[in-house]
Design goal:
By secondary structure, this protein is an all-alpha fold. It contains 10 helices and no strands. Helix 1 (10-44) crosses helix 2.
């Protein structure tokens, strides 16, 4: 016999519904903001333009994010969080080829699906990272140090070739994000109006193979 499942009160249901609406609206606003900030930069972007992109009243943006600076920070923070989440697979007990290969594939997938986010991030760095500098020097640095230590452990155990574990991350980021930040250049050379799914599949296979072979690993 199944145990009785407690029913939610009308008040609890209402709160849950509000939470879902809030999450949906925030995601919608952040996606719209990525596009506007990528096209116009921080200085050229306006809350009105972002509201139009999101197809929401401008008052909604100020309700959820307060002002343009706060929304810009949220876009950058979400991008960094999404980029770093796949590093969770880089663990001492993991297979180096699988862990690094999966991370590269995840980064390439993000470049294909959210190129605007990468462009906003790159533009922030090109301007000296005025908003992100403290986060880069704290959270990002700590994470890279931790994951580089895992890679150094794999090297010490003879599970992969000796490489500079910290600079491996810089190389990996450069190789994957170029397909978002400089997609126009790549598409032009390939004779495309814009990159398509087969182009990203080809590029992903190349980047995975190249980087893993550089680490003495089989793709």
């Amino acid at each position: 016999m199944l145990a009785d499942t407690p029913l939610m009160s009308p008040e609890a249901l209402a709160e849950a519904s509000k939470g879902q609406i809030r999450q949906a609206n925030e995601a919608r606003i952040l996606e719209a903001a990525e596009g506007v900030f990528a096209r116009s930069g921080f200085g050229g972007a306006t809350m009105a333009a972002i509201a139009d992109e999101a197809e929401l009243p401008k008052a909604n943006l100020h309700y959820y994010f307060g002002n343009k600076q706060e929304l810009y920070r949220a876009v950058l923070a979400r991008t960094l969080k999404d980029w770093l989440a796949p590093t969770d697979g880089i663990r001492p007990e993991a297979d180096p080829a699988r862990a690094l290969g999966d991370y590269i594939r995840d980064k390439m997938r993000l470049s294909a699906q959210r190129p605007q986010a990468s462009k906003v991030f790159a533009n922030e760095l090109l301007h000296g990272a005025p908003v992100l500098r403290s986060l880069l020097a704290s959270e990002l640095r700590a994470l890279v140090e931790a994951k580089a230590a895992v890679i150094d452990g794999w090297i010490a155990e003879g599970r992969m070739a000796a490489v500079d574990s910290t600079h491996l991350f810089f190389t990996l980021w450069a190789a994957t994000q170029t397909y978002a930040d400089f997609d126009v250049q790549i598409a032009a050379v390939l004779g495309r109006e814009e990159l398509q799914a087969p182009d990203f599949e080809r590029a992903t296979a190349h980047v995975v193979s190249l980087l893993l072979r550089g680490c003495g690993l089989a793709a």
